[in-house]
Amino acid sequence: MSLDDFPMEKYIIHAEKVAKPPKYLNETVSYDVDGAKLYPLFWPDGASHYGLNDSQQAAFRAALTQEIAVIQGPPGTGKTFIGLKIAQTLLKNRTIWHERGPILVICYTNHALDQFLEGIMPFTKDLLRIGGRSKNENLNKYNLRNSKVQRKSEAFYQIYRELKICLGKLKSIDNEFENILNYDGIIDFSSFDVLPHYRNSPFRHIAKEDITSWLLAEVNGDGEETDTMLPTLNVALPMISKTVPKSSKTDSDDEINSEFDDREQEADIIEIEGDVANLVPLITLREIQLKIYQLKCKLEEFIQTPLGVIRESLEGDNIRERLFQLYQTYDYLQNLVRVDFRIHLYRKNVLENFLMRLRNLNKYRHCSNPDMDPRLMNPDDRWALYSMWLQQYLQYLGRKRKQKKYKIYSEQRDIEDVKIMRENLVVGMTTTGAARLRASLEALRSPIVIVEEAAEVLESHIVTALTVRCQHLILIGDHKQLKPSTANYKIATQYGLEVSLFERMVNNDLQCYTLDVQHRMKPKICNLIRPTIYPHLLDHTSVMRRPSIQGVVPDLFFIDHKYPEELCDNSSKKNIHEAKYLINLAKYLILNGYESDNITILAAYLGQMFEMQRERKKNDMLLANVRIAVLDNYQGEESDIILLSLVRNNSDNKIGFLKIENRVCVALSRARNGLYIMGNMDMLCNNSSLWRDVKKTLEAENALGKSLELRCSIHDTITEVECEDDFAKVPEGGCTLKCGTELSCGHICNNVCHIQDRDHNIYKCYEHCGRRLCDKTETHICKKKCFEECGPCDYPVTHMLPCGHEATIPCHIDPLDHKCSTLVSTTLECNHVANRPCYIPTEDFPCPHPCDNRVEQCGHACTRLCHVKDDPDHLQYKCQKPCVKSRLGCTSLKEPHVCRRRCFEECEPCTVDVKKKRTLCPHVYKVPCNSDVDEIVCEKPCKTLLPCNHICKKKCFETCGPCSIKVEKNIPACGHKTKLSCFETPERKHCNKQCNQTLPCGHGCTNKCSQPCTAKCLHMKDCDLMSPCGHNVKKISCYENCNNYDLILLKYCTAPCGVKLKCDHICKGTCGACFQGRIHQRCGEKCGVYLVCNHECPIPCREACKPCEKNCTYRCDHSVCKKKCGEICVKCAEQCPRKCVHQACKKKCGDICSVGPCEEPCPKSLQCGHPCIGFCNDRCPRKCRICDNDEVSEIFFGTEDDEDARFVELQDCKHILESTGMENWLNQGDEIQMKVCPKCKASVVNTQRYSDYVKRAIIDINNIKQRLIGSHKQNEERRERLLEQVAFIQEKSNKLLGMTHLRNSIKKIEGRLQSSKQVSLKSGKSNRVKQPIDGIVLQALTSKIQLLRYLLDVCCMPENIFMSPEMKAQITFILDTLVRDEDQITVQEIEDIELEINRLRRIVEIHPRLLPKYATDTVTVWV
Question: Which segments cross the bilayer (predicted)?
Answer without folding.
Answer: none
